[in-house]
Design a protein that fits this description.
By secondary structure, the protein is an all-alpha fold. Helix content is 78%, strand content 0%. It comes from Leptospira bandrabouensis.
């Protein structure tokens, strides 16, 4: 009788282990599928990369004029971030590029409006942080931050 109870207990334990394993497997599958890969919209991706290139160029232009204001230990980092291929690479990983985090049309509109305002700002305006006063840029920033 005792060996039968141990055998039943052992069998129940292995079934529980199997159920736990399958539950974890299902959970991980759901989580990985749920991880929003975004909307593939080639037209938007091409357009947004063009806008991003212009924004990066504007910041490079402004940074070159005031390069002395950047601490020595951050110069290479900043320069790397502003370099066009790195700038676009980072954007390709963003919520806006993938149209994640809000209505796709709202994301596109916010980015286009923010882009337009950035290009109209002087370097001094950008250095003073006036971008933080532009509602479309604030909306865009929330999308990028996942808020």
């Amino acid at each position: 009788m005792k060996s039968r109870a141990v055998h039943s207990f052992s069998k129940a334990k292995s079934q529980n282990g199997l159920i736990l394993f399958l539950s974890i497997l299902v959970f991980m599958t759901v989580v990985s599928c749920k991880k929003d890969k975004g909307i593939v919209n080639v037209e938007w991706q091409n357009e947004s990369l063009g806008l991003t290139a212009e924004i990066c160029a504007k910041y490079r232009e402004c940074a070159d004029k005031e390069w002395k204001s950047i601490p020595e230990n951050l110069k290479k980092f900043t320069e790397g971030r502003l370099e066009e291929t790195q700038c676009q690479k980072r954007f390709r990983e963003s919520n806006a590029y993938k149209l994640i985090g809000a209505d796709p049309l709202a994301i596109q509109t916010a980015y286009k409006d923010c882009h337009k305002q950035i290009l109209q700002f002087s370097c001094k305006d950008l250095q003073e942080g006036k971008i933080d006063t532009v509602s479309s840029c604030l909306v865009f920033q929330k999308v990028q931050n996942g808020n």
